[in-house]
Specification:
115 residues, two-stranded antiparallel ribbon, mainly alpha, elongated
């Protein structure tokens, strides 16, 4: 029963943050959530992820819709684009420091609930 109460408390805390944090943005659609996981996976694995690669990897999402989500995530400060030295047209997508902190806290909370 304690784990159920912890999960309920976690959900309520997340919903209180929903309009001012990444929590609400990345839970809008499965594509938003998938994008978040792809970017953070690249970050934690210390690999680069270009905008074009990200658009290709998103399942069931058109390229224009993917572009719109990426643009909005950058405007809200969750991600930023970094030009490459070799090809100035190619941009890598990276998580912001603020988003890394929120994501880390989210993972830690989930881990605490599951144990």
């Amino acid at each position: 029963m304690d784990s159920v109460n912890l999960l309920l408390q976690f959900w309520e805390d997340q919903m209180r943050k929903s309009h001012r944090s990444s929590n609400f943005f990345f839970r809008k659609t499965p594509s938003h959530y998938h994008m978040m996981l792809l970017v953070m996976s690249a970050y934690y694995n210390q690999t680069t992820l270009s905008v074009e690669e990200l658009k290709t990897k998103l399942f069931n999402t058109s390229r224009p819709k993917s572009s719109m989500i990426i643009t909005e995530a950058c405007e809200r400060g969750f991600f930023y684009l970094e030009k490459t030295d070799a090809d100035k047209r190619r941009k890598h997508i990276k998580p912001s420091e603020l988003f890394i902190k929120e994501f880390t806290e989210y993972l830690a909370t989930l881990k605490n609930i599951s144990t």
